Amino acid sequence: MIEQSITIELETGLQARPAAQFVQQANRFSSHIFIEKDKKRVNAKSIMGLMSLAVGHGEEITLIADGTDEEHAVNQLADFVKE
């Protein structure tokens, strides 16, 4: 299992379109992927879970991945929210 704390740099945060794109990216990986914010953990492959966190610009989240491609998954998804 691998974890990485990151700050959301997307101007709109992970709302609407960026959230949907993030979920699409997460679904490319076979690893189990989660996002944690304020001690609430959700499945990063679930749009409803991600939207329930209401992640805004400048907020910190923790990406957690567990599986065969966990490192690649965390790196790719971290890059996505830093763009």
Task: Walk me through the topology.
Layout: E1 2-7, H1 16-26, E2 32-37, E3 40-43, H2 47-53, E4 60-66, H3 70-82
Antiparallel strand pairs: 1-4, 2-3, 2-4
Organism: Halobacillus amylolyticus
InterPro entries: HPr, HPr-like, HPr-like_sf
Protein name: HPr family phosphocarrier protein
Number of separate domains: 1
> What is the radius of gyration?
11 Å
How would you classify the helix and strand content by structural class? Answer: alpha+beta
Question: Which homologous superfamily in CATH is the superfamily?
Answer: HPr-like
Give the uncertain stretches in residue-range form.
none
Mean pLDDT: 96
Compressed to H and E, one letter per element, the order equals EHEEHEH
CATH architecture: 2-Layer Sandwich
Number of helices: 3
Which descriptor suits the 3D outline? globular
CATH topology: Histidine-containing Protein, Chain: A
What amount of the residues lies in strands? 25-35%
- What does the largest sheet look like? 4 strands, antiparallel
Helix content: 25-40%
Task: Give the strand order of the largest sheet, numbering strands 1, 2, ... along the chain.
Answer: 1-4-2-3
